[in-house]
Amino acid sequence: MVDNGRGQVISWYICTVTTVPFVCMRMFARFKKFGRLAVDDYLILLAFCCLIGDLAIQQHMWNLGLGDLSQATQEDFKGIMKMIVPGSILYVSSLWAVKFALVIFYKRLAAVGSRLSMIYNVALGGLAATYLVIFFDILFQCYPYDKRWSTDPKYQCDPKAAKINYWITIFFNIFSDAIIMILPIAMVSRLQMKLKQKLGVASMFALGFFVIISSIVRAYYSHRNETMLTCTVSMVESAIALIIACLPALRSMIIGGSTRGDPSSYGRHYELSSTGARKMTGNRASISGLGSNAHTSSNARSGDPNGSEDSLVTDGMSTLSSEREHHGIKVETTIQTIYGDAIDEQSKAESSKSPV
């Protein structure tokens, strides 16, 4: 082979190995904080397994001559084409598992029943729909599968079907990445916190730009039928997505913050109330939005990994908390903070209502 792409194969392994410490640290942080994993953690593990499976398939394809298809035998070419469908499914599954994990994580940070929570529910539904569309299109765009390696011009895949799959995958992938990146940045911009903190948290989500760039580069090489480069960029894209998905869970572990059973974790929160009002609550009082109460989640106290101890912002005792119901029980705490002459007026009102 003139150029068998050995350097690109090495880069596949580098991408995969690079994700290992991030995934391990995320799982360690979750176990240390909550004692068990949540749904988004299992999705991250699924994405990582799909990445390893995709690596194994690409290695097998390279062994058969993917680096220089002109030198591959008909039997080797047949073996390579047989791996297209499972490889594509693993690639898409890895990316969508990360997308689902991120949206589920963000949803826990929004107030229960809020408009933002509903938006994330819609996003989850959209992800499910787009994944199913791409999944079934990969399965049936060229069926029966032996059309992929047939030498008969009348019994081959329809080029139009391949173009449709190309544009569906590219559009859904890039569009969903952009939405998933924008939504949490918009949420952070509404919080009452220091500008430096906002920029720090927003920049963590802005790393999603690298995933979008990778998707665009992959689309370019895929359009040019540069199979080796397409495989390489696919590994880079999946690895970056996995690493970015692990960063929010690792932030409190690296910087430091509340741990399970630490009562100080409820001292001060940056919250989004159920009406969208942003308030910072102190150790003594929680100020609710108009017409709504500030909820104290029992999940966080019990160390539930789906509860409100998930945080994006760690500033001493500060966390960005969610508000949830636990086993059908919701504890509501409403504390009014009254200043100045309002105290005397409230005292008089209460005295007038008391029995003589």
TrEMBL record:
Residues 283-301, 308-321 have a biased composition (Polar residues). Keywords: Membrane, Transmembrane, Transmembrane helix. The keyword Transmembrane applies. It is found in: Membrane. The chain crosses the membrane at residues 12-29, 41-63, 83-106, 118-140, 164-187, 199-221, 227-250. Residues 281-332 are annotated as: Disordered. One of its GO terms (cellular component) is membrane. It comes from the Eukaryota. InterPro entries: Rhodopsin_dom_fungi (IPR049326), SAT4-like (IPR052337). Residues 25-254 form the Rhodopsin domain. It is a multi-pass membrane protein. Belongs to the SAT4 family. This is Rhodopsin domain-containing protein. It comes from Periconia macrospinosa.
